[in-house]
Amino acid sequence: MINMANEKVAMPIQDGVTRRNNFDEVALGYDETMAKEEASRCLNCKHHPCISGCPVKVNIPAFIKEVAEGNFQKAYEIIHETSSLPAVCGRVCPQETQCESKCVRGVKGESVAIGRLERFVADWYRHHVKEEKKPPVSNGHKVAIVGSGPAGLTCAGDLAKLGYQVSVFEALHVAGGVLMYGIPEFRLPKEIVQHEIEGLKQQGVTIECNSVIGRSESIDELFEDGYEAIFIGTGAGLPNFMNLSGENLKGVYSANEFLTRCNLMKAYQEGADTPIQKPNKAVIVGGGNVAMDAARCAKRLGVEEVSIVYRRSMDELPARKEEVEHAMEEGIQFQLLRNPIRVIGDESGWVKGVECVEMMLGEADESGRRRPVEKPGSNFIIEADCMIMAIGTSPNPLIRSTTEGLDTNRKGCLITDEKGKTTREGVFAGGDAVTGAATVILAMGAGKTAASAIHEYIQNKE
Ligand code: FAD
Ligand code: SF4
Ligand code: SF4
Known about the structure:
Fumarate Reductase Iron-sulfur Protein, Chain B, domain 2; FAD/NAD(P)-binding domain; 3 domains; single chain; binds flavin-adenine dinucleotide; binds iron/sulfur cluster; alpha/beta; 462 residues; 17 helices; five-stranded parallel sheet
């Protein structure tokens, strides 16, 4: 029977005070009863508008129907036909602007909790089904993947299933890209990402960490080594700065450096190899998911006062609504309509404050958002011994500057056709390296598209 409740079944979470002292996952997930109850809110619509909101076109009504009937394994199999990382997407996809934004139940109440159900199914499967994947029969062709984020991993998985011998080259000492070094443990437990990577290894994919393509080996050398096609999924990990006076002071981090130290190097644990300064007061500049993650990590490191400084208002804040609410519950302060103009240092070269100005919103700019304009004479100082810049990232120029024939746009993003083919024969690309900073599911979608284009390319060559 259809459950006509207007609200989603609530998902248990750790309370705000407890969780600001630990890095454990905030949202605890549905149990079987909750999942079935939520799944029975789905109307199984004939025209299934929700699917049009999903970049990889998960068959949402079909998997939810199986959840409602308690067939969790079948539900997993349906999701897995189109999404290779459901436990990740169920947690970090911006569902409210994707699949859930199209759900008809959202017209008169809350949409069906598609993301929570996807997460439930993937977790249920991980805990209940122990499958040993076997490498498929080799087709004798070699493909190299550069970068082990969601784009590279998805491309690798799809090609391995077709029998390709796939080698992934990763610059860092751990595979997973932003899923490992950027998104914190309390939003995406690392064990889940590693489980997916283990599955790929069982399918015969080899992963070579500490391998910076463009330095340790070039794209041309990979071709000389016998790889017939190369996929570049190197992301957009180069942090942007504002070029403020004092931005090079000690205590100023890019969000990427701060999060990498925290998440990948576990700097918050006693005796960790990479130390991290434990500041008293931190200012985070920016309003996206990265800014929320940095602020919430700082809080968990024990920083007393954590402020987010963002130049527009709450309405324009680009971070996911749920992340903003969680940040507020954890005691993060929001300095909205404020912009930093100078970093102030002490005599030993450490940050001691950030000079800001108040802003107001003017006419809309080319992005359609109202342009922030400074209020003259509104300068004020926020005391801080740490400043974290989370104002966006760009693709790293290393590969394009060491490879002939790879065209990029003015933002340094690789140019590809709709199938992920770059301007260099045999080289394909996808994910943030092509789009600039975007989302996990879009990167996965690009990896999938490129895998089928690579297959077609190699078959045609044959
Ligand atoms: P990445 O995940 O960046 O992976 C690229 C990999 O390539 C990295 O491991 C890098 O080390 C490696 N690499 C780079 N250069 C080389 C080289 N020369 N040789 C070898 N390896 C190389 N998206 C969401 O959907 N939801 C969220 O909640 C969300 N939160 C985020 C929070 C943070 C802190 C950040 C930084 C991003 C977040 N995103 C989120 C965005 C999302 O993570 C990215 O869009 C996605 O990871 C891009 O995937 P990718 O595979 O293109 O690149
Ligand atoms: Fe929604 Fe993401 Fe799942 Fe697609 S992959 S159905 S967008 S949660
Ligand atoms: Fe179910 Fe909503 Fe999709 Fe309709 S639009 S099938 S109610 S999830």
